[in-house]
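Subject: sequence -> structure tokens, single chain

Hey, anyone have a minute? Need the predicted structure for the following. Not urgent.
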Amino acid sequence: MAAKIDLTGKKYNRLLVESFAGTRRTEGAGQSIRTWNCLCDCGNRIVVDGHALKCDNTMSCGCYKLEVTTTHGMWKDRFYGIWADMKVRCDCPTNQSYHRYGGRGIGYQDSWVDFEEFKSDMYPSYEDHLTLERVDVHGNYCIENCTWITKAEQARNKGMDDRNKTGVTGVRTWVDKKTLVKYYVADAQAPDGSRMSKHFSTVKYGEEGAFNMAVERRKEYITLLNEQGAGYGENHGTNKEAFL
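Reply:
Had a minute. Here:
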């Protein structure tokens, strides 16, 4: 069983945890949930589930939602959702994308804990068809490292698939089941949906030689596709990890 963490004295958004409030049972499975007595910045007190505090599901006694609804009117706006999604990916271990963001040290600039600060920095260049992108995929969300791009561009520039073991986007391994020979494969997809692929044998070129040749071929593919207007980012396909 996981250790019970004492949240007393910790601050989550507008809520200061004052003391443990006991446990409650959820409906159905009857899971035991630890709850906490919290003091809101506005002076109200509220009992909150521990996981709701840590994952930003409850940010205040309710005053924050009222304020953002009445001040900027963007509570249900797409732009507000982008900000909220950014925070939960970085802050909440139970989020399905946490391992790609907060789990590997990706955070956001301190002022962006406040939606109004994020809005002030990023809304002037925002359009509804754009998505938030970090220029340096290893860097934090901050005004110097964030830009708006189209969904198609984001799809091309996204990080490698979790199953990729080579450390380079667009370079994978493949083993011939008949000969058991391992290959490094360079792949790319053109704007029209057609695919380009080239296999490099580790028997013929050696482990590192086959890998390096696949990486270089991948770069050639990206250069060719960009000449056709594919719009791959300059960091796309670069080595994310040291080889071997």
